[in-house]
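FAQ: What does the model actually see?

It sees only this:
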Amino acid sequence: MRGSKILLAGIIGLMLVPQTAVSAAKSSVARYQARYAKLNKRKVDAETLNTEGALSENYRLDQLAYLNYYRSLFKLPPVKLKAADNRAAQTTAEVMAAICANPFVNQHGLPQRKRPKKISRANWRLAKEISYISNLDFTSGEASAGDIITDMVTDKYNLTGADTGHRAWLLSPKLTTVGLGAAYGKNDYRYSVIKVINGNDYYRRIKVKTVLYPSSCFPVQLAKGRNIYWSIYLVNKRIKKLPKIYIYDLTTRKKYKASRVSNHSRSWYGYFRTIITYKPGKTPLKAGHHYKVVAKKLVTYKFVLFDQNPND
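And it is asked to produce this:
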């Protein structure tokens, strides 16, 4: 009888998604798909990245559009470009490109190299400082402006593993402005710099205090992948223990256990007091399916996956 009670409780907990929720999700999905369709997906390389010897302003605007599209998925306010930070980020990217910084080694603070004579002391000092307070991305060959942002949001190439630090900074509710820079080295790597740490942002009053990845209506392309971790970010609450996390597919009424749950709250990425990351385990992730995440004694929420490239 005990087994029957547990089974019945599980079925009750996995009731079909209400039709009103399905209708609301379809409307939101259509809006997100339309917005994504307008983003510039043109690939650029070492020959087309610059305009008249300088990083194209359109490239920066394209990157900003991608960043704000992704932030909108989490109901986060848009951020703006800051001219001074653009210049600093560009100098930093050019310095890393000039020395062909090792793309497989953490380059925050440029710890592996001494200053080459061809780089001024001022620029070297600036690059060391800015690289320390920025998201860095190293991409070989051609890529769109948005590819760089997508890599940082999914954080699937994070050299430090599962902490999702790049994502946390880009999805920080406190983030107000960014500085963007990019340059190619002779090794055909594009060195991308996104300055994300601004002193005054820490004190900013915010409305969104919980950022859940994935959440709400979410692109399946950002949720599934070998090295993509899901995350729970809390601004005001500090969690020291590891919660037990379960994912429910409300469409098929099946339950799955999260894997590789870890706590990175000591890092303070994005000014979050709690950073929990995990993988969805054996959960099949399909566009159109509704899901529920239960992190015991922490948070419970629902989301639906959608295809942001329905015509591909």
